[in-house]
Amino acid sequence: MNEKKPLLQVEGLKMYFPLKKGLLSRTYCHVKAVDDVSFEVREGETFGIVGESGCGKTTTGKCILRIHDPTDGKIIYNGRDISKLPKSKFKENRRELQLIFQDPYESLDPRQSVCSILEEAIVCDRKFHTKEEIKKRMRELLSLVELHQDIALRYPHELSGGQRQRLGVARALACNPKLIVCDEPVSALDVSIQAQIINLFRRLQEELGLTYIFVAHDLAVVRHIAGRIGVMYLGRMVEILDSDDLFENSRHPYTKALLSAVPTTDYYREKRRERIVLEGEVPSPINAPPGCPFHPRCRYATDICRTTMPELLDRGRNHLVACYHDGPCES
Amino acid sequence: MDNEIREISCITDEETRLKAKKRRKQNIRYFFTVLFGRGILAKISFVLVCIFILVAVFCPLLTSYTPFQQELSNALKGASPQHLLGTDNLGRDLFTRIVYGARFSLSIGLLSSVWALVIGVALGLAAGYFGGIFGGLVMRLMDAQLSIPPLILALCLAAVFGGAVFSISLIIGISAVPGYVRVIYGQVLSLREYDYVEAARLIGQGNFKILFKHLLPNCFPTIIVMFTMGVGTAIMIESGLAYLGIGIKAPTPSWGVMIFEGYKYIFSSPHLALWPGIMLMLLIISLSVVGDGLRDALDPKLRGKL
Amino acid sequence: MGNKLLEVKNLKTTFFTVNGEIKAVDGISYYVDEGEVVALVGESGCGKSVSQLSVMQLVQSPPGKIVGGEIVFQGQDLLQCGAQSKEMREIRGARIGMIFQEPMTSLDPVQTVGSQLAEVIRRHKKVSKKQAWEIGVKTLEAVSIPDARVRMKNYPFELSGGMRQRIMIAITLACQSQLIITDEPTTALDVTIQAQIMELLMRLVRENKTSLVVVTHNLGLVTRHADRIYVMYAGKIVESGVTEDIITKPRHPYTIGLLNSVPKLRRDCSEDLNPIEGAPPDLANLPNECYFLPRCPYGKQACKGKKYPDLRQVDGQEHFIACFMDIGNDEGCTI
């Protein structure tokens, strides 16, 4: 494995959203969107987070960027805990952490031209002053994301979905980020465009040495781009493993079920494959079941699963699993 | 593919500049096509608004009388070559008074709308964006003001500020503020949840820049419509104030004052109230049509579509 | 070979807009046999959804209009009936069911699930309200909804996306539709729920001999479930055939490109994906040649200037492509 130091360490991250009611807005319970999540991301690596909607993957990303202030836990970026820094002290790191949004239609101001979107991001840096410098930087950014200069004067609604997403990437890059959280960046795009954007992400990582946290629900996409993958279920991390191990060596029953649910284009294998169709739906994070969150849908669940949450333990080869019944055999 | 694009983006500055110039020209053309694109009504309205403004500016040049010149022997006459629209109960030339009235009514209408707009939009933006105790306080204050009838409020304010054009417009403006605040507040609440506001925050943009660069421009459509409608309302409120004896004092020709004075003679000499009324109606309608056109012309989304 | 339940011949749907005529569906022909699962695959804007709305005659008019073709359903040309006719309404409700991507918009938000379901049942069967309710409970059980009796009294917003999609399926089931058209039925759902819904649909197809048309962009889903596939691009069918042929031996450059664009779960992921370069053409002004030519990696000088290629048969008995070239003859989709 590479011996690079971790750029980001998340330790015991918790994000509870209070639910309020009544005249005095009394808090009567919490939505445990993220519950005790820990992982680390090394420099230049891509860490993928997969899970179904409501599993807390997006919230985790937003906590790292300090869009939400986490309820508890540490977010150590470059050796410094940024989770409790006051906003004024966080400023110096602000621009090093960027986000790429899921919806390329909502993430661009409809009343700004491409040119002024980029200019805004560049000028904020206060490194570029003269018009010439800004223009040069703008050209640089556009060519980085393979956009034609001609579009600089257009407005977002005149661009295609792929072009918009490229522009979103260019805006993030304008800040010279070290870590980019990509929140479902390709799920709103067509298949052929999706592949173009994924390739772009990979190329930028090579050229600029970026670190990604890639949040998505599509296992195949995440496997393709990420080096390590964390699988989340109901606010908890249930398995963390190298992406090469995902298909052959995943051990958590939920990961296996997810894998089997994803239809692939491998015709002959698809016909032979045994499918695990999970019963029921994801419980609401307002009253998550006690013990392992997955036990109501798990076919291996025993008594201990219903009472105690299994810990996320290292099973060797950088493979962490939170399950009592994770024999690598049954598959 | 990669190389190709990189080559393209090394286009000389000269070429880009030319393209930018062309594009800007196109945008200006689109602006006017959309502004007038709504058929004959939009064109007429635009011309009318222009005429009203020109009349208000150049009124002394248009008539040989002054609005105060009385000729009691000639009172309450119909239209004649000397008096194009006839005379009023004191024998003053009606046409002259309407022309001068345009000056007062327009300036009060516009000025008070500007007051309302500036105060209302600023409060609405701030309350919506910062929220919390400040936002709650502003909104409750506005609710309190809404519960007082606008005319009563204006009466109280007039007693404090007096009755010059400037203070009257301020009074009318203040009474229109809550409307702006409520609408802008609601709009900002929904706009600030958009991803692009989040993105601006992530690139390190300050709160005020976000307010003025992203939230304000996206409120434009509402603001324009509210503004043009506000001008009409303001003129009406002004005439109401005049009728109650505050605001512009009687000899000063404002359309509102004229309508209420002419009202007394509505059966004998209907033209006294009719002509200023028609002018007021034309102004309000044409302003709101121009406002709609302006809203669409400023919307970049509609630009490409024509 | 079964009987043809639905046969669409040379269907053309055009939208008349300020920007000119947009040929959203430009002369497509396809058929669906009884008990068969047919997939229409393509990217957004390729006309796959419009083609299905045309079959139901639900295209918004104006600006949309079906300008030509035949839609033969059980021997009857639907286009002759007229969109608002009583017959068409009866067919839409009962004999052809339609399931959309977002079920929330297809359900009435202010009525309980039960009353909507019972209403549909009573429209098609002469039963009392009470009986209709009982049949409703049974159909909900048939689509594996737990606590069906409780669910009947729920409003649509109280249910999850997967549940709502099940309700939509229950409605088509209650009507005993012979054909179910699904437009991106699982795109809005989570992967595990997606699998549940597809299993359910496939079970209905097997048990009731229903035919299913799946409109989707998800190639994996199609590989897993469809019997035959039609691939669409810019309002035209570019390739059609049995699933096995299309997925393992694609012959049209667009299909090949699409299949290569999908990230594979197993393949070595150190290499880049092979996307199709460029973007789909502007439907308002299409070139007078092959629409895919600008993006085609094989596009030859020979293709230039020629009119749009007709569908022609290649190797398999039912394998058609609209391409001048002979690509992927033996080596499959390797480039």
From TrEMBL, chain A:
- One BP annotation, GO: peptide transport
| Record-linked InterPro entries | AAA+_ATPase (IPR003593), ABC_transp_ATP-bind (IPR050319), ABC_transporter-like_ATP-bd (IPR003439), ABC_transporter-like_CS (IPR017871), Oligopep_ABC_C (IPR013563), P-loop_NTPase (IPR027417)
**SUPFAM superfamilies from the xrefs?**
P-loop containing nucleoside triphosphate hydrolases
Top-level lineage group: Bacteria
Record domain ABC transporter: where: 19-259
A GO MF term: ATP hydrolysis activity
The entry's family comment says: Belongs to the ABC transporter superfamily.
Protein name per the record? Peptide/nickel transport system ATP-binding protein
Instruction: Name its species.
Output: Sporobacter termitidis DSM 10068
Automatic annotation (TrEMBL), chain B:
Subcellular location as annotated: Cell membrane
Kindly list the residue ranges recorded as spanning the membrane.
30-63, 114-139, 151-177, 223-244, 265-290
Keywords in alphabetical order: Cell membrane, Membrane, Transmembrane, Transmembrane helix, Transport
Q: Does the keyword Phosphoprotein apply?
A: no
One of the GO BP terms on file? transmembrane transport
What GO CC annotations are associated with the protein?
Answer: plasma membrane
The name of this protein is: Peptide/nickel transport system permease protein
Automatic annotation (TrEMBL), chain C:
SMART domains to which the protein is assigned, alphabetical: AAA (SM00382)
What are the UniProt keywords, alphabetically? ATP-binding, Cell membrane, Membrane, Nucleotide-binding, Transport
All copies of domain ABC transporter, residue ranges:
6-259
Which regions form coiled coils? none
Membrane topology recorded in Swiss-Prot or TrEMBL: Peripheral membrane protein
Q: What is its main location?
A: membrane
Q: Which GO terms describe its molecular function?
A: ATP binding; ATP hydrolysis activity
CDD domains from the entry? ABC_NikE_OppD_transporters (cd03257)
Q: Where does the record say this protein resides?
A: Cell membrane
Q: Name one GO biological process term.
A: peptide transport
The membrane spanning regions, by residue number, are: none
Q: Which InterPro entries match?
A: AAA+_ATPase (IPR003593), ABC_Ni/Peptide_Import (IPR050388), ABC_transporter-like_ATP-bd (IPR003439), ABC_transporter-like_CS (IPR017871), Oligopep_ABC_C (IPR013563), P-loop_NTPase (IPR027417)
Task: Kindly list the GO CC terms recorded for this protein.
Answer: plasma membrane
Family affiliation:
Belongs to the ABC transporter superfamily.
Xref: PANTHER family: DIPEPTIDE TRANSPORT ATP-BINDING PROTEIN DPPD, OLIGOPEPTIDE TRANSPORT ATP-BINDING PROTEIN APPD
Identify this protein by name. Oligopeptide transport system ATP-binding protein
